[in-house]
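ARCHIVE CARD
CATEGORY: sequence design from structure
SOURCE FIELD: tokenized fold
FIELD CONTENT:
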């Protein structure tokens, strides 16, 4: 199902100058709460991504002005990644558009069918979780 929905979701993210993975980083920072700051290691663990993959995403996000990296005052060998005001506004707008898009995509299902889909996906997730 994800493969079928992915192109429509990607289209929303690109209107905000983002790829899906970059949106995920911004959303993780947003969910972390004020001051919207995490280490690259925390982000990698949260998103189940290699550090090299995270570095690439952070480079693009920093170049776009969505995040900033600063030295970690508690460990000068490490960095902290902070959501900028631009990043905060962008992830909030992108999340609103993403939610509206998913709602639109699922609107073909009435309440009964949507409930059935929800039940089936829960069963599938439990089976995949082991």
């Amino acid at each position: 199902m994800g493969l079928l929905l992915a192109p429509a979701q990607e289209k929303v993210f690109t209107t905000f100058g983002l790829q899906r993975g970059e949106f995920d980083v911004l959303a993780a920072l947003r969910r972390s709460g004020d001051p919207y700051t995490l280490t690259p290691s925390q982000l990698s663990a949260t998103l189940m991504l290699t550090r090299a993959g995270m570095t690439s995403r952070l480079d693009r996000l920093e170049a776009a002005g969505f995040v900033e990296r600063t030295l970690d005052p508690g460990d000068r060998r490490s960095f902290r990644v902070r959501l900028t005001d631009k990043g905060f506004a962008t992830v909030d707008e992108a999340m609103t558009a993403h939610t509206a898009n998913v709602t639109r995509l699922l609107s073909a299902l009435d309440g009964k069918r949507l409930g059935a889909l929800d039940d089936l996906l829960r069963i599938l997730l439990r089976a995949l979780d082991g």
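CARD ANNOTATION: The longest strand covers residues 75-83. The chain has six helices and three strands.
SHELF: design records, drawer C
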